[in-house]
Amino acid sequence: MAKTVAADASGTARLLGWRIDTDRPDGRVAVIMDVHHDHTNRHGNMHGGLIATVLDTAMGATASIECGDAGRIPFSTISMTVNFIAPMALGTITATGRIMGGGYKTVFVEGEAHDQAGTLIAQATGTFKRAPID
Question: Which whole number is the average pLDDT over 10-30?
Answer without folding.
Answer: 81
